[in-house]
Amino acid sequence: MSIDEQFVMVDGSPALRKLARETGYRYALCPRIHVLTIPDRYPDLSFLEQSYDDVTIDDRQRYQAEDRARRESFGTSWTMMGIRAVATVYVPLGPGAFQRLVIPSMGCFGVESDSGPAYLRQVGEEELANLRDVLAMLRVHEPVDQVVEWDVIFQQAV
After folding, report:
1. Longest Cα pair distance anywhere in the chain, in angstroms?
2. pLDDT tens sequence across 38-84
3. How far is it, in rounded angstroms, from Cα 134 to Cα 104?
4. Which helix (H) or strand (E) holds 113?
5. Are 115 and 85 in contact (CB under 8 A)?
6. Which domain of life is it from (predicted)?
7. Nearest to 83 by CA among 1, 153, 158
8. Pairwise CA distance, residues 109 & 38, whole Å
9. CA separation (Å) from 91 to 8, 13, 156?
């Protein structure tokens, strides 16, 4: 996302204008957060190349065969991804004008796409909590009816 796409002047919806009015135009507002997955473009697969020196020869051969099969299936049956929460924040500039900012969490990368839904949801919840901590430090107002959108991959774990 370019700098021009992150910092945009918008009129704001009637609900956003109402919320800004209710807070006296003194707070940045965050009506929406999106928890999403993104491809991990530089995955670290070195964990699939262990020597297993501390186990028996039979176990070592079995583990290395499992790792080899896992490496060979990378990109076809599974990939690595990142999970990130992204807040859309509106800074009131007056009764009807807002500056829109996009603030992402740091993100957690190296997540295996075929991880269980409960684990994926847990990582998403952690990213959401981290982002909310940042928003609190910036004194961004999060309304009680804030919308949190989850990518479809998380829906199985609800």
Report:
1. 72
2. 999 999 999 999 999 999 999 999 999 999 999 999 999 999 999 99
3. 10
4. none
5. no
6. Bacteria
7. 153
8. 9
9. 10, 13, 34
CA–CA separation, 57 vs 60, rounded Å?
5
Residue 19, Cα to own-chain centre: how many angstroms? 26
114 — phi, psi (to 5°)?
A: -95, 20
- The Cα–Cα gap between 83 and 88 comes to 17
Give the pTM: 0.84
Strand partners, 99: 9, 91
Contact 124, 83 (CB under 8 A): yes
What string of DSSP letters covers 39-96? E-SS---GGGS---TTS-HHHHHHHHHHHHHHHHHBTTTB-EEEEEEEEEEEEE-SSS
Answer for the pair 8, 100: CB distance below 8 angstroms, yes or no: yes
Contacts of 156 (CB under 8 A, 6+ apart): 117
